[in-house]
Structures are given as structure tokens and as C-alpha cells.
């Protein structure tokens, strides 16, 4: 009998969205309650995210599961998970900013429209949701909880890092015959990218829209004075 396939906005999808939403406020509270000892808690969360990400990578690279076009950890969400681990472990300013902007804009898109075929209780289903939910929770924990404040320096560096990823992905996709990040062409199925024109126009429109939304996400942090003392951040040299 064929294995069950994931259904967008089916019961399991709605349940996982409910879990995601239910965990946001507790992560804010956890951050606020542990501002006096952020290192221990944030590092335990980093270990938890690694435990969620590694099984997915192992499963994707097992014989019979590996697919060159989807299994390599080259999607921006894969990089976001790795960056989030570093942000939780080090709490360095730029890495926290990248986690905030990537985590609160890109990961929720994956939660709403997941590129997922495996259904509950397949381990790939559980690992996928654990990774993406954890990235958002970590971003909330670091900023709204611990009080790390994104700023324009972090915004500029995030835009630069993201643009560099897109530039590098084009020749990588050409070499491998893949289409990670839909950098080389739009997906064969319908998507919002269809509204943005042909290649490479849709990439430019996407960059402008994302950069604009990120600017709107950064601006409030540069205007509002902190009410509570944030956890000490580790500055990059």
C-alpha cells in the first residue's frame, strides 16, 4: 500500500501550525525569565535545534532517499537553521540579526506552503516541522525574549549575505543541474513568482520585496527604546 502523502492544510498541517503558534509566547516568556543567565538556556536550545536538523539530513542522504535536486542542504531554510544554531550558541549581534530576518520572514512561508511529501508520523515530516518551527521560535526567543535588538548594520549584512547566496547558487545550479532557491528558473508548479515576470526579472522583484519587508521589520527596533535590560550581546569584531 502506498505511504500516506502530506496534504496542504490537511489535519496534520493545521495541527503543526497550531503547535507553532502555541509555542511563540512561551518562547518570549522563556527569554524574559532567563535574561540573567541567557548563555545556558540559549545553548541548550542550540543543541535542541541540532537534534532536530541532523535526522532530516541523515534521512535525506540515505540510499534510496537521496535526490540531487532536493537533498543537499543548500536551500535558504537549511542555511537559516545552521545560522540559528550559531546565533543561539554565540549570541553574536550580526548572526542574531540574520536569524531574526530570515527566521521571521522565510521560515513562516515554509510553514504555510511546505514543500513536503511525507506525512505524519514519517520521521521526515517530524524533522521538517521541528526544524522550521524551531528557527522561528529561536528568533523570537533571542529578540523579543532576551532583548537583542536588530539594527541597520545587521539589516545590511543580512541583505549582503542573502544576495551572495543567490549569486553563488546560480553557477552551483548550472553545475549540478538543479534549481535550489528557484534562482535559475521558476518552479514548474504555479507560485507567487509567476506574478513577478520572467527570469531574471522575478529575482530582482523578489529581492526588492524581501529587502523592503526586512527594512520594515528592522525599523521598529531602531525607534523604540528598550524598557527592560536586555541580555548582554556578544559583539563581532
Proportion of helical residues: 55-70%
Which ranges are low-confidence, i.e. pLDDT below 50, for 5 or more consecutive residues? Answer: none
Rg over C-alpha atoms, rounded to the nearest angstrom: 18 Å
Largest sheet: none
Name the overall outline.
globular
How many helices? The count is: 7
Structural class: mainly alpha
Order of helices and strands: HHHHHHH
DSSP E strands, number: 0
Average the pLDDT over all residues and give the rounded result: 87
Task: Write a structural description.
The chain has 237 residues and is mainly alpha-helical. The chain has helices at 11-33, 38-60, 76-90, 93-112, 123-145, 152-176, 201-223. α2 (38-60) runs antiparallel to α3 (76-90), α3 (76-90) crosses α4 (93-112) and α4 packs across α6. The model has no long low-confidence stretch (mean pLDDT 87).
Keywords:
single chain, 237 residues, mainly alpha, 64% helix, 0% strand
Write a short abstract of this structure.
This protein has 237 residues and is mostly helical. The protein is built from 7 helices and no strands.
Fold blueprint:
Blueprint: H1 11-33, H2 38-60, H3 76-90, H4 93-112, H5 123-145, H6 152-176, H7 201-223
Helix pairs in contact: 1-5, 2-3, 2-5, 3-4, 3-5, 4-5, 4-6, 6-7
Amino acid at each position: 500500500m502506498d505511504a500516506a502523502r502530506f496534504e496542504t492544510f490537511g489535519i496534520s498541517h493545521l495541527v503543526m501550525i497550531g503547535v507553532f503558534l502555541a509555542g511563540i509566547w512561551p518562547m518570549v516568556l522563556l527569554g524574559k525569565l532567563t535574561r540573567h543567565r541567557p548563555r545556558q538556556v540559549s545553548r541548550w536550545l542550540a543543541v535542541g535545534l541540532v537534534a532536530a536538523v541532523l535526522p532530516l539530513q541523515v534521512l535525506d542522504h540515505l540510499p534510496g532517499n537521496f535526490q540531487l535536486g532536493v537533498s543537499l542542504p543548500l536551500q535558504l531554510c537549511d542555511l537559516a537553521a545552521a545560522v540559528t544554531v550559531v546565533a543561539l550558541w554565540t549570541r553574536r549581534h550580526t548572526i542574531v540579526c540574520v536569524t531574526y530576518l530570515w527566521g521571521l520572514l522565510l521560515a513562516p512561508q515554509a510553514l504555510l506552503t511546505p514543500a513536503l511529501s511525507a506525512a505524519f508520523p514519517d520521521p521526515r515530516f517530524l524533522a521538517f516541522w521541528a526544524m522550521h518551527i524551531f528557527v522561528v521560535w529561536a528568533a523570537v526567543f533571542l529578540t523579543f525574549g532576551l532583548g537583542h535588538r536588530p539594527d541597520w548594520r545587521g539589516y545590511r549584512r543580512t541583505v549582503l549575505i542573502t544576495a551572495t547566496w543567490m549569486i553563488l547558487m546560480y553557477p552551483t545550479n548550472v553545475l549540478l543541474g538543479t534549481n535550489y532557491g528557484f534562482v535559475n528558473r521558476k518552479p514548474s508548479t504555479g507560485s507567487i513568482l509567476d506574478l513577478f515576470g520572467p527570469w531574471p526579472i522575478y529575482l530582482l522583484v523578489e529581492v526588492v520585496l524581501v529587502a523592503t519587508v526586512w527594512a520594515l521589520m528592522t525599523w521598529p527596533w531602531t525607534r523604540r527604546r528598550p524598557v527592560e535590560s536586555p541580555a548582554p550581546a556578544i559583539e563581532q569584531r
